[in-house]
Structure formats: C-alpha cells, structure tokens
Design brief:
With 137 residues, this protein is mostly beta strands. Helix content is 4%, strand content 49%.
Length: 137
C-alpha cells in the first residue's frame, strides 16, 4: 500500500469558495443525519484535483456539505439566515484519483487561510478531510 501512496501527487493547498445564501433564506432539516437539510451549502472547489464529496442514501446522492454548529455539531434547522450574522458550514473534501492531501493541508476558503483546527478527520488514505468555516451573511 505504501507504494500506491507514493505514486499519488500530494496536494499541500486546497482553495474553496463558499457562496453565502441570501438573507431571509430558511434552513430546514428533519433527518438527524442532516441528509434532508436544505439549502445545501454551495461550495466550489477552485481546482479539478479535488471536489466536494457526496453521500448516497437510498439511491439519492447529495453533496456532503451541511450547515451545523462547530461546538455542538448540531445541524441548523428552522433557522432563517440573517444579514450581519455568521453561520457555520461543514464540508467533506475528496481528492481526485491520483491525488492525496498533505496532513495538515493548507485550506483557503474565500481567500482566508483557515486554522489547522478547522480542518480535521483526514482519511487513512489521505484522500479526504472535513472542514468548518463561518460564513457571514
């Protein structure tokens, strides 16, 4: 397995853009796993070497991105986005085939380099990680 990892290109920096939702947008979520949460955070990978991972439940696929609190990990539900307030987005980033992430990766979201504490859960294969980011509306 070590030989397989050595053949992959290591990505030291990941850049993402998070598009803030409009003020007044209502977040809803009835599933404890967050699978039915809407709206889904809009996260754009600034490279084709990585992407927002997906999750599949009963044949339905969605991006693995959610609105949830950092401290309690509770999914936002029945919350209306308010102008001037911040909301935490969670996302799982996956490396494209042939790539893996440096641990720790330098993560830049909306032009701001995040603290290593906001990047976590690196996979054993080095091909995915999760992050948290506060989006100001």
């Amino acid at each position: 397995m070590k030989e397989e990892l050595q053949e992959k290109e290591v990505l030291e920096t990941v850049e993402l853009t998070v598009i803030p939702p409009d003020a007044g947008t209502l977040i809803t979520c009835g599933d404890p796993s967050g699978f039915d949460q809407t709206p889904i955070p809009e996260i754009i990978a600034d490279s084709d070497r990585y992407f927002i991972d997906t999750v599949c439940v009963n044949g339905t696929v969605r991006p693995e991105a959610y609105w949830k609190t950092y401290n309690t990990l509770v999914f936002y539900s029945d919350v209306r986005f308010e102008a001037g307030k911040s909301y935490t987005v969670f996302g799982k980033i996956k490396a494209a085939p042939g790539y893996m992430f440096h641990d720790p990766v330098d993560l830049i979201v909306n032009g701001e380099e995040l603290s290593p504490e906001e990047v976590e859960d690196y996979s054993l294969e080095g091909d995915s990680f999760t992050f948290y980011y506060d989006v100001r509306i």
